[in-house]
Each structure stands twice: as C-alpha cells, then as structure tokens.
Amino acid sequence: MKLSGEARVPGDKSVSHRALILGALADGETAVEGLSSGADVHSTRTCLEALGVEISGSAPNVRVRGRGLGGLKEPAGDLDAGNSGTTMRLLAGVVAGHGFSARFTGDESLVRRPMKRVAEPLRAMGAKVDLTPADTAPLAVSGGGLKGIEYASPTASAQVKSAILLAGLHASGSTAVIEPVATRDHTERMLSAFGAPVGLSGRKVTVTGGSRLKATKVLIPGDPSSAAFWVVAATLAEGSELAVRGIGSNPTRTGYLSVLARMGADIHREPARGEGGEAVEDLIVSSSELRGVEVGAAEIPGLIDEIPILALAAARAEGTSRFRGLDELRHKESDRLAGVAALLRALGAQSRIEGDDLIVTGTEKFAAARIDSLADHRLAMTGFIGAWLAGGGTVLGADCAKISYPSFYGDFMARAS
Ligand code: S3P
User: Fold this and answer.
1) Hey, where are the domains in the chain?
2) Active site residues per annotation
3) What Rg do the C-alpha atoms of the chain give, in angstroms?
4) Which pLDDT value is given to residue 275?
5) Which of 12, 13, 14, 36 maximizes ligand 1 atoms within 8 Å of its Cβ, making it the mutation to test the pocket?
6) pLDDT the model gives residue 273
7) CATH homologous superfamily for 221-414?
8) Cα 343-345-348 angle, rounded to 5 deg
9) What is the pLDDT averaged over residues 318-340?
10) Average pLDDT along the chain
11) Pairing status of strand 139-142 against strand 4-7
C-alpha cells in the first residue's frame, strides 16, 4: 500500500483557538479564514458565545464580533470545554481578567487533567480560582482587579504561558512569563498581529495591561500536528509520493520534521505563501527507510503532540530510538506515554518506558492488532496508520479523531492505494 497525490489538513488547532479568543477581546470585527473544523475549537466557540460573543459563519470561515478588552458578559451557566485543555486554560486566563465568576467543566478526560498550573499564577495575579481537592476541574474563576506579575513557570506549557498573558492584558502594570524551555509562540505572534505590544527577551515574554486589541484578518495555516500523520504514513509506506500543502512552518512546531530528517526521511520543505503572522510551507514526501533516533528532553516541547506518530515511525526504523523527558505526555488527553507504548506493542514492536523516557525498537512488519485509542484523538489516528500499514486491525473509539481532524479517515483512504 502507498499514499499518493496531495493532502490538505484542517487549520491549526492552536492558532484557531487564539484567533477566536483574541477576536472576542478586540475592538471591531475579526475575519478568520482557515479555522479548524475540530471539536476542540468548536468548544472554544461555544464558551465564547456563552460569554456574550457573537460569532457568525462556520469553520473554516467565521467572523467574530469583538467585545473589547474586559467586555465579556457573565455566563448564565457552566462553560463546557469538552475535551479541550486549551479552551479551559486560556479562557480561565481571560475570565480572570473580568469582574465576574464562571465555572468551567469538561469531559471525562479533561476533568482528570492538571489545572493547578494555571490556577497558581492566576491566584498570584489576584483572581480567586477553585479546583477539586485533586487540583482538577471543575475550575471556578472569580476575576477582576488583577495586578501584573513576573512568573517563572515551572512547566514548559504554551497553555499556561498563554493563560497568564491573556490575564495580563486585563491586569494593572506589566505581566511577564519566563519559560523553562521555549514553547509554541502563537499567542505572542497573534497579540502583535492584533496591535498589542509584546516584549520578547530570551525565554521571557511581557505584555502591558490595558493594551487594546484591534480587529484584524487572521489566515490560519494548516496544522503541522495533523500534517505529521500524513508525513509519517507516506514515509513508511513504500512507493509513496505525497504533497502535503499549506502547513504552518512556525519553528516552535516543526521539531518533528527535524527528527524525521535525522531518521533519514525524504521530506522536501518548500516555503509557500505566508499566512499573516504565521509562515507556511508545502511538504513533499517520498517513502524512505528510517534509522533509530535519540530525541532530547529540550526538543520535546517543539514536538509534544507528534510523539505518538514519531514513535510509530521509530517502530518501523532500523535499531532503537529513545525519546527523553516525556513526563508531560502523561497529562494529555490520555496518559499518552502509557498509551503509545501499549499501541506499539500491540503492533508487534518493542517499546518500554524507563523513567520518563520511551524506548522503541523497530520491526520490519506490523501485526494486525486491536488498538485502544483511550478516547485520545492522536492515539486513534496513530493506531489507524499502524493498522493500515499492518494490512488490517481495529482501532477502538476511532471516532475521537474529530477532536482535531474530523475528515481524517476519509481523506486518508482517498489517497491510499
Ligand atoms: C497547546 C499547547 C500544548 C499542546 C496542546 C495545544 C496550545 O499543551 O500539547 O495540544 O495550543 O497552547 P501544553 O501547553 O499543555 O504543553
């Protein structure tokens, strides 16, 4: 089997959340093109609507009528963030800046994920944030009257950084976040695109309270995290020739391409037309033999969402690969570290966890398997590709791909032969 032709993917999920949120806080009407069609971004939309924001049209093209800085309305009921950590954490920062209370809930997966990481800095800014005794959601915020802080974040998390910066826009004075390792910088770029000054100095990002946002047009690039499924599948399926077009090439997101290049993948990167604050490229992939790779802990934030599919690539590479420092993977939509190790073993590859490291030894052929997605969209799509390469198998709960990529299975089979 092989993949051929051209593929396009939904708009970047991270950038889509931010486009809706900054559009909601801006003065004027923001036009968004290329919005993600995934369920997570829809959760951000419905939460914003419950906060009084008018959003017209549907993905990929929507218009957001901004309510201006501090202009959101108190919601009538709980805000349901669904499966989306980005929705809950970023909007917690936004609500903290408003003089009202809101309570965020989520699905079974989201209410197990750690929320202290946003609660602590928001409390330090003056918000009241209540969690369960396990420091999980429901997350209740009573905001307003915030003061700026300088926060050295113990966690390398773009969601934490973004929550603080969004609260900081509504705070007195300036607010700075210092990251332990650089994470995706979409919030910073988009704040600049909306006309808010952002100070950047090494791993320190600063915003000034009261900076008003000016509505703009946002063009959202294809999601590199979705493109990664195509890129790895085409690399592994002999005889494939595939072009994946219009993918965001923000260097904080393309770590997976560097790792695949080190493994010997044949991926030609062609810069394409720019999309506002975010650059775009086409990825031209030919199948190739891979070798094992070492991925260091400092690289992980730049490819955190691509670990499952990179691990699948390692499971077909010659030799042994090691991915270091994966503790954060335990706190995703599932315990993705355990989930990916089990998925690879089901396919017949050797994989084990040593401390926070994942060690994978490649095999030439996958076995048809019954794979549990653990209701995690990235494990579901990784498992599907594994089963496709094996020539058969089952993915339990495959439907959760809709979180980031509703048309994945149909699009994939249309290019597979
Ligand atoms: C995201 C940041 C990352 C990533 C998630 C999206 C974002 O999470 O895994 O899919 O949009 O800011 P963390 O901030 O928890 O690392």
Assistant:
1) 13-219, 221-414
2) 305
3) 21
4) 58
5) 14
6) 76
7) Enolpyruvate transferase domain (3.65.10.10)
8) 115
9) 98
10) 97
11) unpaired
b/e string for 193-209 if b means 16 or more Cβ within 10 A?
bbebebeeeebebbbbb
Ligand 1 center to 159 CA (angstroms): 5
Residue 84 near residue 13 (C-beta atoms within 8 A): no
| pLDDT band for position 327 (cuts 50, 70, 90) | very high
Task: Answer yes or no: is the C-beta of 157 below 6 A from any ligand 1 atom.
Answer: yes
Domains 13-219 and 221-414 share a fold: yes
Relative to the CA of 18, which ligand 1 atom is closest? 11
Q: Do the Cβ atoms of 280 and 249 come closer than 8 Å?
A: yes
Please, what is the end-to-end C-alpha distance for the chain in angstroms?
5
Residue 191 and residue 207: Cα distance in Å, rounded?
A: 9
With a 6 Å cutoff on the Cβ, whether 252 touches ligand 1 is no
Angstrom distance (rounded) from CA 3 to CA 234? 6
How high is the pLDDT of residue 277? 73
Q: Is 129 in the pocket of ligand 1 (CB under 6 A)?
A: no
Give residues with Cβ within 8 angstroms of 417, minimum separation 6. Answer: 1, 2, 4
| Architecture of the domain defined by 13-219 | Alpha-beta prism (3.65)
For the cut 70, the answer to whether the pLDDT of residue 274 exceeds it is: no
Give 140-171 pLDDT, tens digit per residue. Answer: 999 999 999 999 999 999 999 999 999 999 99
Helices (H), 237-333: 255-262, 307-314
